[in-house]
Amino acid sequence: MENLPKELWDTIAEGLEGHADLLALGLTSKSWCKVIIPNHLETRVVRADAKRRVVWTYFAENSLAASRVHSLDIPRFPWKEIIPIRLLEASGIRFDVRSRNLSNTIKKTIPMLRQALAHMVNLRCLEVYYDPAMTDIFLMLAENPFNTLQELRVQMFCLDNTFYTQFAAFTGLLKVDIQIEVSDPNDPAPYLTPLLDMLLSKCPDLDDLCLDLSPGHSAPRFIMQGTWSKLKRLTLKTDMLTTNQPAHLRDSNRVGVDVGYETIWDPASTRSVRAQVMARFLARHPKLEVLKIFSSTAFMSDCITAHDAPSLKSFYLNYRYDDRGGKGLPEGVFPLSKLLPLEVAARLEYYEGWISAACLPLLSKMTSLKTCVPWLDEYNLLGPFLKAVPHLQRICYSISPAGLMTRESDILGYYGDFVSKSPSKSNLTHWARFPDDPYNISHWYYPRGRPAYILPAVEAFLRRISQMKDMKYVQIGSSEKGEDWVEIIRDMEGNYQGYQITNEVTLPKHWGKFYEIGHFPSMV
Fold it and tell me: Which run of H or E residues covers position 241?
């Protein structure tokens, strides 16, 4: 092995996908370690600011290193950048994470970034946001698409007249996440036709799809024609079957189908008809395991049968909107008991959505349910809800009725009372809080941003919640990044002995593979 050409060593390492396999091979000998540790483990995944000049210059000038990149993330707001610092330093490049390595504008780094992308011939996952200054980058992707690309995640907040046609260049994608938010929602949406053409005709093996279209834009053709035999995860953050008249047609006499803008406005289309269309869509995708639908009116009572979703394990329906103060279900929203038959609900491992008292008998039969984010239509329903699901292990819930509790002791006391209502045989191990909860306990827990001490009210709350014998992790804040968690410390008899701040809780790991945080999940 020692006498093999370095290119062959690279080829062998390139054949290993997982980081664990790479690391195991790298530890077998010093020779493998020198090849794998810096050259593969550090370059497989790169996340860097578009203005990070030294990074893009390095990859532009080192085609071999660029060819080893499998996942590239050029985020809108850089957070926890992943940069091969040791390789940069080995090449004589001094890297400074602070602004000294950042160009003043993206335009100055575009030539290096474009050349670096041209060298990434083995790229499999691309996550990027669209900036007008990056038009040349997107044009290059359209002219020379990556043949190896399997995952595409794009954020777009500004479109021009040429960008939308570039969707036609991508083929064979397995995972797609598109977020589009134009400045004027009244504008037409010419991007929809090439986008839907790409998804419907050029990505037959799609298994994971997330679409978040700009408000006011609808794409019913997606629901009516979309068929992917391998689709397992679907997230729609836009109502694809809205009957609201598009703003750009509001003052015209055009009623019906507008193929160019993918818009269907049919005043005669009832909610029942839309529900039937959605049910047929689900029936065409028997392998669908995860379904997340935001703000959709395409679901009605009893519109889904046991045969429509045979593989469904995770179900999320309708955005929670603002705190309703315990005033019942929003208009037009159905609770879980009205949406899914027992045969489908009994297979769920994750549910997020509205729950009313009528749902409790159904929940008691959902013994596979391990994680839940309940939106209760009444605050006093929390105790009965927990008694109905003693098998539940992870819950995300906040108590924040506007005007009812304003002092920290009131809020924590209410949580403590809730604990006393919980069943003695509760299996709960994790308790998280809504990311949008305005009553952030971490404001009290982290004085001046430092965990210097814990307030007596919080200490009392943790002591009380420890009465749940399996409770281990509690999120006392509401950070979207999954921060502000503490771990309860117990003695040999299981009694409360204190707490410790923990970084161990990463939501995707601890909350099952269904729970997602943030608006645009990272690729790693």
Answer: none
